[in-house]
What we know:
Elements: H1 19-27, H2 36-44, H3 66-93, E1 105-109, E2 112-115, H4 119-127, H5 131-156, H6 160-178, E3 181-182, E4 188-189, H7 202-212, H8 225-242, H9 251-261, H10 271-284, H11 291-303, H12 307-316, H13 328-342, H14 345-356, H15 367-375, H16 381-395, H17 401-413, H18 417-429, H19 448-460, H20 464-476, H21 483-495, H22 499-525, H23 528-537, H24 563-576, H25 579-591, H26 598-610, H27 614-626, H28 634-641, H29 645-648, H30 654-673, H31 686-697, H32 701-715, H33 721-729, H34 739-766, H35 773-792, H36 799-813, H37 816-820, H38 824-830
Antiparallel strand pairs: 1-2, 3-4
Helix pairs in contact: 5-6, 7-8, 9-10, 10-11, 11-12, 12-13, 13-14, 13-15, 14-15, 15-16, 15-17, 17-18, 19-20, 19-21, 20-21, 21-22, 21-24, 24-25, 24-26, 26-27, 26-28, 28-30, 28-31, 30-31, 31-32, 32-35, 32-36, 33-34, 33-35, 34-35
Amino acid sequence: MPPRTPFSLDLSRTSYVCQSCVTNLRAQGPQLWLTRSVSNVSRRAQPLRPRSAPVRGKLKTRAATPALKQDLQRVLAETLAQDDKAAQDHERDNAGQPPVDIRFFDEAKPGQLRELKSSEEFGDVSGGLDSEIETAITDLEGQMLNMLGLLKRLEKEGDQDKADELRKQFKKTLRDQYKGRIGPEADDYKALHIPGFSGPRQRSIAALNKFLARESLVKGGVPRHKDLLECWKSYSAARKTLAMSWASVAPEVWDFLWMILSWEGTQNPNRMRHVYVLARDMHAAGVTLRSSQQLLAIEAMFIEGWQEEAIESWKKAVVTLGSKSDTFKAYWELGARMCCLYGDTYRAQRAVDTLLESAEDPNPRIIIPLIRALAAKADTQKQAWEMYQRLRELLGDDMKIEDYDEVISSFLTASGTEDALQAFVDMMFSGAIDIRGRTRLPIAVGNHFFIGKWLKRLIGAGDLDGAYKVVLYLRAKGVVPSPIQLNGLIGAWLRSDIAENVEKAEQLAWDMIRSRLSFVRLRRRGAAMEQQRIRFYDPTVSAVPSAYNPDDPELNIGTRASSETFALLAENYCTRGLHDRLEGLWEVLGEAEINTSAFFMNQLIRSYTQNMQASRAVEFYEEMTRNRGVRPNAHTFLALFGTLSVNRLIHRDPSLSEIDITAARRFFRDMVEAEWTFESMDTFQFLPRTILFSLLKAKDFTGMIVAARTMRELFQFVPSEPLLIELASGTVTLRVKTQRNMRRIMEGSKTIEGLIRRHRMALEEAGVDMGTEAQRADELCKVFEQLVLVKAGAQEADPQAVERLLEEAAGEVGVYDIAIAKDREQIAKHRKVVQKAGSEDD
């Protein structure tokens, strides 16, 4: 978790050094080779030791090679000679002068000096090798000796090829270990290591060092998603330990961590949180942030909730960041956005003016956040409109649709519907029409087609509240939206599953229903035709005649409900299990004189079934189809098969199964005779599954085979192998991974494999080749029928006797000509899949 205490970025620190100090520094001459800073750099290089290739054994000796000893002796001799020469020169220059009291210091941390006790301690600090460097040298010697010994042994045994291959691998390892890793901004990250920790705390530091040493950490300048997650995981685990000694973290490590954690992209959703924590730690460690890092740290602080502190840090950086050419634009844009979000419109406007009046090629779109902030306050909405005009003037032809959408959303959110409509009119007519302040909208704007485009755009963008505000505004202006537009808004509200939106949808839908009922009553009085003539043909008369009181529900003829309005409410009530409301809606549907659709009928059938009134659902279906002429569709029969007891009850009743068989066969016969079609079997793939599983549960095995044969002719349905396994195992889905279900699936798979193997062996004996897709379909259908016989316990029955039973069942269902006789004329008459042009019957 990130720390929840604010911190102030010390942005006043600068790298400026006065000229006199620079002169004194240059006069000191070159530094000696062996210094404390070099020792620190060497310590950071420790993790990149060359790793030897895998060997079968290691030589125990770690004695230094003669060449390495000679190199070390030569470097030390040269260093001592330089020290002697410097001492002689110093004595010659200071001959005859009084002795000077010299004090020695060591820099423990950046900016913190520690006085040494004597010159001997100074010699130990400045002239000796670090123990870590000595250990690294010793380990390097051992690895090199091991490798050389292995190579000599291989060459001596005559395995020269293996020795050459191992030598190349060793060279490649050295080259890869010491090559730099290039980051996104061409930063070279070489030796990354955090030393100086031991004991129980070493584990988290070791994990972080292991992460920093990975060669695949940066590939092509783009960190992987896995790298981002592991970087934060390892660093957050090591933070408490690192806080005990921030000086142990080298600047290169900080830069590398910043490069990874601040990576911008969808794969780094917690970017700002991580930047905030990292910037806080770097500030505690005394690390000076670069200009770009300071800006990002301020933004992260603002997003993490420390808004006042972030704005204060931004103000203090006006000299160091706001006046530099490389950070001028980013600095003022950040300030403008933060002040807009914070509500400080005065300072935000000053920042925007500073940007727009500069010569840094500013982006005028920085005005959009200011428009949103100004429009949110009632006393500054006029200024928001002025800023919008300024934005249009600056962008000109470069103003895009997305810019208009941002402005329109800003005005709608602040209930500035008129300004939002004017912005939309500007987008559509290039500013040629002005509607602000007018009591009546022009014909080019105040019509269903133009308003429909706007509402469709708002609904598609998810701005449902804005769309509703547009509807209310249009009603106040005398423009009545069409039912199609309002139905789209109602459907979007209902699909959101938000209680407030569902309530708004019901309120708007019932308002449209009341308008429909008012219209029907007026039509019954004989006045509707005159009102419609005035409304559609006389443009000088308002859409809502002034002679009628709009508050009177009897005479409020706003947007009238359509059949789609009733269907949307019916589906919602059925899904929510509000059966009483659905029945009430059904009664109102008759009063509204709207024809009943198959969709509404299907919702009522499902609702009756859910309300434990399956018999009433079937009666309602028969009444609608036989007496009112409603044409059923595939969803109707899905709902009807859901009324069977085998699909409703957990514990099956054998007495009810007989009733289910009769009802299922009647539903299937009605489905075949019904006049409905679809483009592809993929559209209604659940219908054959539902039918077969229902007949299987009711143990109507002959009905299963007859139904499968019929659906193959009419639906082009072929049972797939997964469906066969589900039927064999008795499970509705293969996705449930319970132990019992998996055991049943395994048994079903074995059954299907055995039936397929038996069928193919019979074909091989007959000399038939399984090469075509049609033969594969025939095989699956044959296996299905064999599976049904296995389920019925009649796998050894006489085929002729089985065929007689199938003929009898087909006659009862009314599909004898289709399933048994294969009458091409009857098949073409009742086919449900639309035949493509040029296709022929099988």
